[in-house]
């Protein structure tokens, strides 16, 4: 009898140990709001609009995250993350089941991680958190014009990607990504690569990144559309080649954090038109915790375009402000507003304002949005 009891106890202990070595977490975020816009283009001209919006701040998503302890500081890891529109229940990211992220890999305590699948670029991983568009303090509507530097992580991910991210070495982290074209005989067609690094010491945080995309316009627009390539969706501005780089810094003092981010994007052969351009973005941002439950944040971005597309050398001024109140550890409400104006010396296809994430551009050179939103995490 004692032997049977001991055997059962031993089996129970082994089962508990095995269970402790593996974990799978279900998580998600639901963001929905009511948005007023002063001007949107319609077939009858420009009109104001009041509408329900999904993901005005952060894109709604759900996902599974898991890890298995392999011993010696080594783990097998995976993430499957699906974006969706809470207003109608449809999938985001071109209807993909796990359109935001889908990867599996190995993680080492000492050496970092290597993962394979659909993943974010190093610009999102390292520079994005220093711009308010890459955080909960501004999000989708705070993105730079057309999200030209891809710092907002709502829609753009890279397929066929192998990514390395280092461990934290006394505050220094670095990483890189390569997205394969998966195209026989055309290795460089529709491929992507990206690198980035960050350093944190006390209240100071610095980061830099670079992203290179080859032939994404050919892949998205040409008749021989290659749906297996590294870049097949999510880009507002497609070109035969895109090069984006940027850097940012922020500093925290007491309940406040101030930051600055600079990015530049060069686009060659936009949408197979023969035109090329570049965008420069200068963002200053600030956030302050008034109380443990209440915070305010704001950003000013000056952007300009050059090259032989948008011949009027358009430039944008954009101001965004947000206040957020935490109801619980998982639920908060926010009120945000963004104002954008675009100036150009001559007629230009870029001569109308278009705040990121809205359903239509303005009928004029300025646009305002105001959103009252509710966000729940699980």
From TrEMBL:
One of its GO terms (molecular function) is porin activity. Keywords: Cell outer membrane, Ion transport, Membrane, Porin, Signal, Transmembrane, Transmembrane beta strand, Transport. It is found in: Cell outer membrane. The keyword Signal applies. Residues 7-340 form the Porin domain. Residues 1-20 form the signal peptide. Gene3D superfamilies: Porin (2.40.160.10). GO terms for biological process: monoatomic ion transmembrane transport. Residues 41-57 have a biased composition (Polar residues). SUPFAM superfamilies: Porins. GO terms for cellular component: cell outer membrane; pore complex. Residues 41-62 are annotated as: Disordered. Homotrimer. This is Porin. It comes from Paraburkholderia polaris.
